[in-house]
Write a structure and sequence with these properties.
2 copies of one chain form a homodimer.
Chain A (H helix, E strand, L loop, with lengths): L6 H14 L2 H10 L4 E2 H7 L4 H13 L3 E6 L2 E6 L5 H7 L5 H7 L14
Antiparallel strand pairs in A: 1-3, 2-3
Chain A binds a DNA duplex through helix 3 and helix 4.
Chain lengths: ~120, ~120
Amino acid sequence: MEEAFDIADVTELADDLKLLGDRTRLLMLALLKEREWCVCEFVEIFDISQPAISQHLRRLRSKGIVKEQKKGQWVHYSLNIEDKPHIQAVLQLTPDTPAILAMLNRTPVTVCCEILH
Amino acid sequence: MEEAFDIADVTELADDLKLLGDRTRLLMLALLKEREWCVCEFVEIFDISQPAISQHLRRLRSKGIVKEQKKGQWVHYSLNIEDKPHIQAVLQLTPDTPAILAMLNRTPVTVCCEILH
DNA sequence: TTAGTATATAAGCACGGGCTTATATGTCTA
DNA sequence: TAGACATATAAGCCCGTGCTTATATACTAA
């Protein structure tokens, strides 16, 4: 299988790495490996404001790395990387959900929407 | 084999991804997969100034991702990632030297130091 | 309709990143 | 030693980023 890299591919790889190069976004994506998450859960887990959470998700969404699904007044996010092997490769380097929740001192997550834990 | 992630590991992973998330630095590291390179070669290959090249190399060096070897008036850089599997994993996603030189319209590189091409 | 909740957007601020030009430092050679 | 070459550092500029607070939008339920 031949590689057919061009300058646009490398630029996109670099841009994606830069996008993953933020601890909050990286942990969001690592959590999304396990299941979909509601915005309100992220707001509980991370020590930043709700607009900050929303802005991180918007950047991931505009790059097509996550997709949203509106469920009533809640919005659930899930990974959308079936066609993005380089994102998959990076996410293999990240810890799993229990480790993340433990390191953020957020075990267990309080139920704030209809997602069951 | 148990994972023992902590918050410092994730922060370092994110920081390293951010460092690789620049097209110039990513291509430098991709070139360094093949062999060591002289600073003057990078100056020829990339369309930025010599100080810009030097600053990129300093950042990679201060993170321990590359190491330098002074040879007379020239400085050769090489990879230093034996103990950094996450860097290795990302560099597996990058093109090889001929592809990079072709996409930058820099084939072949003019000899500007004692490294043989 | 009104209030409450969930999420997104707007605006502004502080900081860092990547580049430039100018200059300093180090090395080789005539 | 003087000059040329290779590299690093300094200083400054512009722009992007991550956060905040304030506000807008959307949905739900009384």
